[in-house]
Design a protein that fits this description.
This protein is an all-alpha fold and about 220 residues long. The longest helix has about 40 residues. Helix 1 runs antiparallel to helix 8. It has one domain.
Length: about 220
């Protein structure tokens, strides 16, 4: 089971790096993937260290939730440790979704002025995300602390949250594209890519959970 978790994590990493990061360039800059300018812009964006923070967040979140869901060796730990780790991972991803959704709405309403005001520096963005992370962490801990199968419920929440965030980000992207703003599409394209990334992330643990339940059912039948 652990080996399948590693395989799913690696495949997800390839999807994020090989498809979603280029999709951010395509949506934000509206370049053809065959144009030389696309690859130049892609290389320039990958050169910013800020880009790798959300990438690292979603990849680490995928790994944490995946192995919490499928690794039965964690049963020997205290239940409170399960809750804390799951809440940290889920709240981090929800903070990313919340920031992406708010940025999309702000770009649609205030256009480039929103980015000039709230995306002015990396420290400002990271500070706002840290506040959202802490708030979601407190809420998740209070909600999940007495629950069973915390990772499963967290994955379900992430799937619902990503769908809601996409329902916000996609119309906002259409709005800013019609206005032909300069920088605003960067916020809405980030919102779309973040929503898709978290949605795909949710399927990995879900698939292995179903697989583990089926294997446990076969083992129970064999024991009878």
């Amino acid at each position: 089971m652990r080996k399948w978790g590693i395989v799913i994590t690696l495949v997800y990493a390839l999807i994020v790096l090989g498809l979603l990061v280029p999709a951010f360039v395509l949506l934000g800059a509206e370049l053809s993937p065959l144009a030389p300018a696309f690859y130049k812009t892609w290389r320039e964006i990958c050169g910013y260290w800020e880009v790798w923070i959300p990438v690292a967040a979603i990849l680490s979140g995928q790994a944490i939730l995946l192995f919490l869901s499928v690794d039965t060796s964690f049963k020997r730990l205290k239940p409170r440790s399960h809750v804390a780790v799951s809440c940290i991972a889920a709240s981090m991803l929800f903070a990313l979704l919340t920031f992406a959704g708010l940025s999309s709405v702000g770009a649609a309403v205030y256009s480039d002025k929103f980015l000039d005001m709230y995306w002015a520096s990396a420290a400002q963005v990271l500070g706002f995300c840290a506040i959202l992370w802490a708030l979601w962490g407190i809420l998740f801990y209070l909600y999940f602390r007495n629950s069973i199968n915390v990772a499963t419920r967290a994955v379900s929440w992430l799937l619902k949250g990503s769908v809601l965030e996409l329902l916000i980000a996609v119309p906002c992207h259409v709005i800013v594209r019609r206005r032909e703003h300069c920088s605003a599409p960067a916020a809405t394209s980030f919102g779309i890519v973040a929503g898709i990334a978290v949605m795909l992330l949710s399927f990995g643990p879900s698939v292995l959970l179903l697989y583990r339940k089926r294997m446990d059912a076969y083992a129970a039948r064999g024991a009878k």
